[in-house]
Amino acid sequence: MTTERTPTIARMYDYYLGGTENLDVDREAADQVIAAVPDVVAGIRQNRAFLGRAVRFLAAEAGIRQFIDIGAGLPTQGNVHEIAHGVDPAARVVYVDFDPEVVAHAGALLAREPNAVAIEGDVRRPEELLAHPRLRELVDLDRPLAILMIAVVHFIPDAEDPAGVVGRYRDALPGGSYLALTHATADGIPADAASDAMDVYRSGVTPLYLRRRERVAAQLAGLTLVEPGLVNVAEWRPDASKPDDPKLMFYGAVGRR
Ligand SMILES: C[S@@+](CC[C@H](N)C(=O)[O-])C[C@H]1O[C@@H](n2cnc3c(N)ncnc32)[C@H](O)[C@@H]1O
């Protein structure tokens, strides 16, 4: 791992998930967030579990065989290609992240994997991202695909129009495609706790924008949401791992174009 002294979103997320790809600076920043919002760890694990259920739904029930995972994060357990390949080894997966360290790690993991690649790209630049030559080698944008935007849109500032950005991906999707999205929210936590958590990201990492349900719903305009719609990620097609009383930390939905 790099020895740089600035925490990153990806390494902090890895720490919340119980991974080992993090440094003291990441753990210190993440511990400040946990002190402000103790349920953040459970919420993040539910977000990751949503990703798994959504990909399984898309591959096994919706028949999707091409995935673009934007804001993919450091490789952990239950990666998109592992789930998709459990349904069809020919499924194609492109991981995208703006953090070169994430792309290097994912690239090393995927070195012997013909149907998955990791590329550098910024979610805020949809046209550039979708035009990336390595993405185009693997994904046919004229055939149904799924775009995954899991725990990444809350890093897009209001000034950069998050709903507009998501809408540009929606508009690029051919019919029969899907977009899965999760977004952190302060709807379930006290305002001062949310503000303390956002301060940690704003002062030392990358600003984080917790948004209300109606703002997240606006990002999904123009899509037909599959049941149960936009809900607490823990309540989206839950399996046996669902906690009895899940706290609301992330909204999630899967929409069809
Ligand atoms: C919280 S992690 C989520 C990882 C994974 N999607 C998940 O939900 O399990 C967010 C990831 O998004 C990446 N990210 C943040 N802003 C981004 C941007 N503007 N463009 C691309 N990636 C971004 C971070 O580097 C990080 O790896």
> What profile does the largest beta sheet have?
8 strands, mixed
What is the chain-wise order of helices and strands? Answer: HHHEHEHEHHEHEHHEEE
**CATH 4th-level superfamily:** Vaccinia Virus protein VP39
What would you call the structural class? Answer: alpha/beta
Write down the overall geometry. Answer: globular
Structure report:
By secondary structure, this protein is an alpha/beta fold. The chain has one domain (9-256): Rossmann fold. Helix content is 40%, strand content 15%. Helix 1 (9-16) packs across helix 2, helix 3 (40-61) packs parallel to helix 4 and helix 8 packs parallel to helix 10 (213-219). The longest helix is centred in the N-terminal third of the chain and has 22 residues, at 40-61. The site of S-adenosylmethionine has 20 residues, from helix 1 and helix 3.
Give a topology summary.
Layout: H1 9-16, H2 24-36, H3 40-61, E1 66-70, H4 80-87, E2 92-97, H5 100-109, E3 116-120, H6 126-130, H7 133-138, E4 146-150, H8 162-172, E5 178-184, H9 191-204, H10 213-219, E6 224-225, E7 231-232, E8 250-256
Parallel strand pairs: 1-2, 1-4, 2-3, 4-5
Antiparallel strand pairs: 5-8, 6-8, 7-8
Helix pairs in contact: 1-2, 2-9, 3-4, 8-10
